[in-house]
Amino acid sequence: MQPSVETLVQLLESYRGRDKVIRAACYGSQLVGGLLSRKSETDVPSRRLGKRLLLFSAQLSHCRTVLRLFDDLSMLAYSHSYGLGAGEEDAGVRFVSVLSNVADQLYYPCEHIAWAADAELIKVKSDKWWLLSTVLWGTSLLLGILRSLRVLLLLKKKLGRNERDGGGNSRSQIRRQMQREVLSVLSNMADLSNAIHWMPPGFLWSGQFPNWLVGLMGTISSLVGLMQMKAGDSDGTDSPESLPPPIMRNSPGVLLE
């Protein structure tokens, strides 16, 4: 079996790896589908394929939403193990990380309620719960960006001290850590742009992204997540950069142009 195929199989055998692959396929389909659906009206086959890809993307998003019904305990275990961040040396990183864990933990029940309302399992309106889950997701992403920027600042200071002391091995390790934090910032910013797009009308650029741009931002974030996982940067729990977006419902106002 080819090494690339073996790598994909290994990814799909783990829950977290499978989620990242589905996420990449979801946003990749939305990117390509969004571009094809913008073709000239005379190019009927391309537009038809584009709409099918958008519907496929919506189904993958729904699949991830259902799978996240079982993520609360793993997130709770991670939050409990982190606690108040006693292992962190910097108070700023500790404070932001705790707030981020709170936002992540609250995200799941809000999304569950919204999903149950849309599935008509409970008699409540789902709109406010989707909005609340989006706000929590955006808050987590923003806190993740602040945390990474703070860590980058601390690593830059540490790198300067090591250069003066002549620590070659530690310098290369610090640079690798800085690269991972830069990738986390890139991933979070791409997801945050989508989170703002899903906010109510009138908030910054909410509702202004076409399908292909939403797909592009999500694809960038998903590819970064796969790179980090391959590099062993994943800890097996939902971190701010991997916390998923609310379900993309397959209605004309959301997915189909």
Descriptive account of the structure:
The chain has 257 residues and is mostly helical. Helices cover 72% and strands 0% of the residues. The chain has 8 helices and no strands. The chain has helices spanning 3-13, 15-36, 44-67, 72-82, 91-118, 127-165, 168-197, 211-230. α1 (3-13) crosses α2. The protein is globular.
Name a few traits of the molecule.
single chain; 257 residues; mainly alpha; 8 helices; disordered C terminus
Draw up the topology in text.
Blueprint (H helix, E strand, L loop, with lengths): L2 H11 L1 H22 L7 H24 L4 H11 L8 H28 L8 H39 L2 H30 L13 H20 L27
Helix pairs in contact: 1-2, 2-3, 2-8, 4-5, 5-6, 6-7, 7-8
